[in-house]
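Z., the sequence and structure:
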Amino acid sequence: MENRKTTNILLLIIIIPFIFYLLKILSFIFIPLIASMFIALLFLPLMRWFNKRKVPKFISIFVVILIFVALFKIGGELVKLSSREILTTDTLFLQKAEKKVSDLLFNMEDFFGIKYFVKGESVFSNFLQKESISNNFSFIANFISKTLSMTLMTAFFVVLWLAESINFEKLLNNTILKQKYASVKTFMKIEKDLRTFIKVKILVSLLTGIGIGLACVFFDVNFPIFWGLFAFVINFVQMIGSFVSVILLAIFAFVQLDPTSTLFFFVLTITGVQVLFGGILEPIFMGRSFSINIIAILVMLMLWGYIWGIPGLIMAIPLTVFIKIILEKFPRTKVLASLLS
């Protein structure tokens, strides 16, 4: 009996890294599949509402597709507005930005004792000369093509989830949870918690983006629509996103604004927006239904970020919530679930 237990532990130690290896290798399938599952959870109440009124399934799915198209249209218009903002920038701002960036880089070179840029030359042109423009273009084209293919696959999987071609409840019942009552109860718990997380995250990110955009308008910082849209998108990366948006916007404000009290109060304002929505309102809205400790969040962010990159950083917390709920259903793994709490 003891030998069997030891063998099972050794097999588990071998299988877990192999599973993560497969998730990394087959990321082009698993990323849209998991992302579509989270998106489909948001539309399940609408699908049930249509089902109660005996609306044909193809009509309800068509309505969901129209909602997707409308959201993409709104997002595209916002991107166009931010692009127009940037393209209409006057040359004086670019010259001022280049001078401040040059001074900052030269001071850093003197401090660290390294020489990369040549004084008297344009820093931007110097950078462009040392980096291959064709390589940058191919990288951008590759990124856009991957993003587009992932988006289309995600939309396809969302339709399959909503059409019940992929039934998550039956999948749980046939694989992890053998009892039907347990699988139904677990599915309801997963659906409730993940839907709460996704809705709150969307609301908090939207409020953060609006707050950052209004702060840019109030302090007369350029590109308020762009920075508001950037803050909305990057805020989906738990913990890291808020730091990135504040640091990048503070650097941009340093380039545009003189280092006076205006710059100080602007940085204080955008930091306050992130603390208010991300640090205070988000935990209040989410409650304690799936509380996860900060160490577990950091570990999961590093793990899923290593496996799936940026999509992994975005989906790290929902995946952790899912794993925690599953672990709570088995007596032997309740200790692991308590470690995440």
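The chain has 14 helices and no strands. The mean pLDDT is 75.

Let me know what you think.
H.
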